[in-house]
Amino acid sequence: MKKFGLVRDIDDLEQKAVLDGWEIDANDYHKKGSDFVFLSKQEISVAFNTFNGRFFITNNETKNFIGTDQSISLKKEEWYKGILKIVYKEIPERFKTKKKSSASS
Question: Fewer beta carbons under 10 A from the terminal one: N or C of the chain?
Answer without folding.
Answer: C
